[in-house]
Amino acid sequence: MRWNRTAKPRRRAPPCARAAPRRPTHPGSVVIVHGGGAEVTAWCGRLGVAPRFVDGLRVTDPATLEVAAAVLAGLANKRLVARLRAAGLDAVGLAALDGGTVEAEPHARAAMLGAVGTVRQVHPALLETLLGQGRVPVIASICDCDGALLNVNADDLAAALAGALHARALVLLSDAPGLRLGGSIVPRLDADSLAAALDHPDVQGGMRPKLIAARAALDAGVPRAHIAAWSGPGTLRTLIGGGGAGTTILAAADALLSHRSHS
C-alpha cells in the first residue's frame, strides 16, 4: 500500500495496492486503490477455476469475475478497511463503481480477456467529499458498464484517479522493488526514457501494466510516479520526498535524474 501520511496497519503491506497521495486541495491526504490478485488466484484454485493471464492482465471469464468481485470488493477491501480503522484512520471502503465514481467500458481486447474493463471517465465528487472530511477512501478495482461488472487493472484505475484528483504523485506499491533492466533496478526515468523502457525485453508480466499506468498518470498531469515495494514505516513519506528505493518516473525531463543505461 502506501502509508505514512496514512499509517501502516500491519508489518507487511498487501502485495497489490496503489495510492494517489497529497491532493493539493487536501494536503497530506491519500486515496488507496488496492488489488488482491494473489488472493483471487488462491480462491480460484479452491474453486477449481484455472487462472490465466495475458500481458500481465487477468483473463476474466464469468466464473473468474464472480471470484474477483467477491474477493476484491468483499474480503480484500473490508480486511484492509478494518486494519486501517484499527490503526486510527477513518477509512471508507468502496468499489470503483460505487456512487458512479468511475465509468468503465470493455477492454479493447475483451474478446481475449473477457470481462476486463478500462476507465472511460472519473467523477471524483464522492472522493473529494470523503477527503474533505478527513477520511481515507479505499477503492477496489471493480467497475461496471451497462449493468455488468468489469474487472479493471488496479494500476490503471489508480492512474486515472490520480489524474482526476490532481494528485501530487502516483505510488504503485507491490512486491516488485522497481523497474529492473539488465539485472539492475532503474532508480529514475523521465517521460522520454519511459517510452524506451516499455520496449525493453526485460519488461514483462505485471511490470508492463505498471509502466503503462505511470505513463497515463503523467499524461494526465501528475508530476511523478513511483514504483516500489513496501519497506516499512516511512516508505510513502520517503518516496514522496524524492528518496527511497524503487523507480521514480518524472513528467519533466531532467538530465540529472534520467537513467539511460537501459538503452
Automatic annotation (TrEMBL):
Report one GO cellular component.
cytoplasm
- Give one Pfam hit by family name: AA_kinase
Aspartate/glutamate/uridylate kinase domain residues are 29-228
Q: Provide the residue span(s) of the region labelled Disordered.
A: 1-28
Under the heading Gene3D superfamilies, the entry gives: Acetylglutamate kinase-like
Per the UniProt entry, the Enzyme Commission number(s) are: 2.7.2.8
The annotated regions of Basic residues compositional bias extend over: 1-13
Q: What class of enzyme is it?
A: transferase
Q: Which reaction does it catalyse?
A: N-acetyl-L-glutamate + ATP = N-acetyl-L-glutamyl 5-phosphate + ADP
**Record's keyword terms, sorted:** Amino-acid biosynthesis, Arginine biosynthesis, ATP-binding, Kinase, Nucleotide-binding, Transferase
- InterPro entries given in the database record: AceGlu_kinase-like_sf, AcgluKinase_fam, Asp/Glu/Uridylate_kinase
Q: Which pathway does the database say it acts in?
A: Amino-acid biosynthesis; L-arginine biosynthesis; N(2)-acetyl-L-ornithine from L-glutamate: step 2/4
Question: What biological process terms from GO does the record include?
Answer: L-arginine biosynthetic process
Gene Ontology molecular-function annotations: acetylglutamate kinase activity; ATP binding
PANTHER family attached to this UniProt entry: N-ACETYLGLUTAMATE SYNTHASE, N-ACETYLGLUTAMATE SYNTHASE, MITOCHONDRIAL
What is the name of the protein in this document?
acetylglutamate kinase
Identify the species of origin. Answer: Eiseniibacteriota bacterium
Q: Which gene produces this protein? A: argB
